[in-house]
Amino acid sequence: MAARLCRLRRPLTAAFSSAAAAGAGQAPPAEPLTELRQAGGVRTIVLNNPRRRNALSLPMLQSLRRDLLHDVKSRELRVIVIAAKGPVFCSGHDLKELSSEDDVKHHSQVFELCAEVMTLIQKLPVPVIAKVNGLATAAGCQLVASCDIAVASEKSQFATPGVNIGLFCSTPAVALGRSLPRKVALEMLFTGEPLSAHEALMHGLVSKVVPEDKLEEETMKISQKICESSKSVLALGKATFYRQITQDLDTAYKITTKVMVDNLTLRDGQEGIEAFVQKRKPVWSHSQEEKK
């Protein structure tokens, strides 16, 4: 599919970092806050405001949500990669949006939209990969933890430093606490100290750590492997994984037992088995239709 770029979005105002104030008063960026391109079943969404450290301002969150949802039911879309320009993957919320100059209603809007985007990632019918090359802090760390897979360069770091500025990272803690052992997550939240890429790998925040010059290659390798499978089967599997993971053991097995039976009724469920028996490559329909 030909490359596609998203339309111009509202400019970002500031980043969740002490360096953000240095950019105050500057002209808004001439480029969109996110870029969308898609080819070979892989959609790449690039956070595109390195000047503001790719902060998750309200406009940035709106732009990211649009790109995630764009034509998401298309059979041609098989996997989504979230990447970023600049040395900071994402610095978290825009602190200027959280100042006392804005009312509680606006603050609620920011956090509610952020929560919507984070939960949306796990509700999408395709796998979502975070491609991290740099620092991911606060809600930026939350974004990485919310993705299905995360591949990071060796120079990447992850932190929840809100406690150091009087704003505990409570919403990032939701995703972080579901990705990391509790004591590791709480140490990050209580101290604000960063994890290195290899520490993040050891504790399960990221899937793989590679040299910076291998990051694109490894991310595409995973993406292309996903593209070899049936979209309908992956969609069923992803939804079931997140549904069962919060249940007790008996309930989880009841859910997944039924889903295995449902999977066998899918056209692609039967195609895969027939292809295996016949020793041929399966021809996927990527359809939710049942086998007639």
What's the topology here?
Layout lengths: L33 E6 L2 E6 L10 H12 L9 E6 L3 E3 L13 H20 L4 E5 L2 E3 L1 H8 L2 E5 L3 E3 L10 H10 L2 H10 L3 E2 H7 L4 E3 L4 H13 L3 H14 L4 H17 L1 H11 L15
Parallel strand pairs: 2-3, 3-5, 4-6, 5-7, 6-8, 7-10
Antiparallel strand pairs: 1-2, 8-9
Helix pairs in contact: 1-2, 2-3, 3-4, 4-5, 8-9
Brief digest:
The protein is of the alpha/beta class. It has helices spanning 58-69, 104-123, 139-146, 170-179, 182-191, 197-203, 215-227, 231-244, 249-265, 267-277; strands spanning 34-39, 42-47, 79-84, 88-90, 128-132, 135-137, 149-153, 157-159, 195-196, 208-210. The relative contact order is 0.10.
Q: How does this structure look, described?
A:
With 292 residues, the protein is of the alpha/beta class. The protein has helices at residues 58-69, 104-123, 139-146, 170-179, 182-191, 197-203, 215-227, 231-244, 249-265, 267-277, and strands at residues 34-39, 42-47, 79-84, 88-90, 128-132, 135-137, 149-153, 157-159, 195-196, 208-210. The strands form two sheets. The protein has a six-stranded mixed β-sheet, with helices on both faces. Strands 4-6-8-9 form a four-stranded mixed β-sheet. α1 runs parallel beside α2. 38% of the residues are buried. Mean pLDDT is 89; it is low at 1-26.
